[in-house]
Design goal:
The chain has helices at about 15-25, 25-35, 40-55, 60-70, 85-100, 120-125, 140-150, 160-185, 210-220, 270-275, 295-300, 310-325, and strands spanning about 75-80, 105-110, 130-135, 155, 190-195, 225-230, 260, 285-290, 305-310, 340. The radius of gyration is 25 Å and the shape is elongated. The strands form two sheets. Strands 6-5-7-8-9-10 form a six-stranded mixed β-sheet. A four-stranded parallel β-sheet has the order 2-1-3-4. It has twelve helices and ten strands. With about 350 residues, it is an alpha/beta fold.
């Protein structure tokens, strides 16, 4: 008498990730082939179909229904969760998402992932979020992985992104011009523009181009110069001791800048620490202006001069735009959210110049 035949392996133990690995393609490609959506090359489609046959993969009805339905969850990524400016950005995302019945998953933007997508972006894709709102630059590899998986990202790369950029330029250009003309009026001709090196191919690089050009144009028009001062930001960069025991580059010497413009609020602590190490007093030796405002910027002594944005309103519009795309509704033009130049105690005359008092 023969015993019962051994049971065959459960087909449900095979996952979509197993199929992707077997076929040598991404998860998004497998998903498009299985669901019959989007474009997939004939070669990739054939590889997926062969892998499905070899592994005897069959998605359950429940899994299929979950994939075809929206999760009503979106993700929001910002460069630094400790930065108060990004807290306001996240509040804007949260407010708009809640109004439309969505929940928000929050994460810090991952560092550049090299040839493969970052574990965080892979997790975002696997969690099945409907879309992603970016509050800072994201590496090209991660953006490509999101596109392949069919996850919409805002700001995007289409016409709506151009309108968003134009709106941002219109809202900020007047404040930037007021700030630069005030520095010129105070006698500053050597300006340090503090930037953070962005990941190669980062999407938001062109988002800052109009501002950079305006600053350089106005300073050069009066015979001055603008020097880019690269400073790392984030917990590992803020206050990191210099192994050489030297001041940060471009902060010392007779030709050093007499005014520094921090292109992001995130860079401000690092800039202030660098100026302290270089023994430069604010505003006697160097004036400081910061893009982005917060309570601590006003409470710092001397209080920091800023370009204030309504980042919450900007984030809310981006979120609205994402949800419109997800729900197949026509998009509306972005509002022009005006920025404001607010002069505080960190701006003063260039060394050797006689000041004209606070801007009125």
């Amino acid at each position: 008498m023969t015993g019962p035949k051994p049971s065959a392996p459960s087909r449900q133990s095979v996952t979509i990730r197993d199929v992707a690995t077997e076929a040598g393609v991404g998860l998004g490609t497998v998903s498009r082939v299985l669901n019959g959506t989007g474009y997939t090359s004939p070669e990739a489609r054939e590889a997926v179909q062969r892998a499905v046959a070899r592994l005897h993969y069959r998605p359950s009805r429940r899994a299929r229904s979950l994939r075809q339905a929206r999760s009503l969850a979106i993700a929001a990524m910002v460069p630094n969760l400790m930065n108060p400016v990004y807290v306001e950005f996240l509040r804007g995302v949260q407010r708009a998402a809640t109004e439309h019945g969505y929940v928000v998953l929050i994460a810090e933007t991952p560092p550049s992932s090299g040839p493969a997508e970052s574990p965080l972006v892979r997790r975002v894709i696997e969690e099945g979020v409907d879309g992603l709102v970016l509050g800072g630059p994201l590496g090209q590899v991660d953006l490509a992985a999101l596109r392949e998986a069919g996850v919409p990202v805002v700001p995007g790369s289409g016409p709506e992104y151009g309108s968003f950029t134009a709106s941002w330029e219109a809202g900020e250009s007047d404040a930037t011009l007021s700030m630069v003309k005030r520095l010129i009026d105070l006698g500053h001709r050597r300006v340090g523009y503090v930037v953070r090196p962005e990941p190669r191919g980062a999407r938001l690089g062109r988002y800052r181009r109009a501002r950079d050009s305006l600053i350089v144009r106005e300073i050069r028009a009066v015979g001055g110069s603008v020097t880019r001062v690269p400073l790392e930001a984030g917990p590992e960069g803020i206050g990191r001791p210099d192994p050489q025991g030297e001041a940060d580059p471009n902060l010392s010497g007779p030709d050093r800048p007499t005014a520094f413009i921090a292109s992001s609020h995130q860079l401000t602590p690092r800039l202030l620490l660098a100026l302290r190490r270089a023994a430069l007093e604010i505003p006697t030796d160097a004036s400081v202006v910061v893009y982005g405002d917060s309570e601590w910027a006003a409470a710092y002594r001397p209080a920091l001069t800023v370009i204030r944005h309504d980042t919450s309103a900007e984030a809310a519009w981006l979120t609205e735009r994402l949800i419109e795309e997800l729900e197949g509704r026509s998009s509306h033009q972005p509002p022009v959210v005006r920025a404001e130049y607010i002069e505080r105690e960190s701006c003063g005359p260039a060394p050797g110049q006689v000041g004209r008092g606070p801007a009125g």
